[in-house]
Write a structure and sequence with these properties.
With about 90 residues, the chain is α+β, with helices and mostly antiparallel strands. It has a single domain, classed as Roll (Ubiquitin-like (UB roll)), CATH 3.10.20.860. Helix content is about 15%, strand content about 30%. It contains 1 helix and 3 strands. The protein has a 3-stranded antiparallel sheet with strand order 1-2-3. A hairpin with a 2-residue loop joins β1 and β2. The longest helix has 15 residues. It is flat, with a radius of gyration of 17 Å. The structure holds zinc ion. Zinc ion binds next to loops.
């Protein structure tokens, strides 16, 4: 499934894990659990080609507001410009 047997960054072993992924399309975001090969040494995550293609499809669907095959988990927010700590800024 993956062209790498070792981590391409640090050369350590990879292990299949379910990781949480957040994708953004337009002003919408979707979170999901994804099977990935994860380097237990440096944390690098490797996804299969099919998964990368699905990420692209998900981003496009979010951008086009096509929410078929999505379920609503609630609203998402960013902070307003009035947020008192200026180290924290809105993303849009
Ligand atoms: Zn690594």
């Amino acid at each position: 499934m993956i062209p790498f047997e070792k981590c391409p960054i640090c050369g350590h072993e990879l292990e299949e894990r379910k990781v949480e992924k957040l994708l953004r399309g337009g002003s919408h975001t979707a979170s999901m659990k994804v099977s990935a090969e994860v380097c237990l040494h440096c944390g690098e995550r490797l996804y299969s080609e099919e998964v990368v293609r699905s990420f692209e499809e998900i981003r496009n669907k979010l951008k086009n507001q096509d929410f078929s095959n999505f379920k609503n988990l609630g609203q998402s927010f960013t902070v307003a410009e009035t947020w008192p700590n200026k180290a924290i800024l809105p993303t849009a």
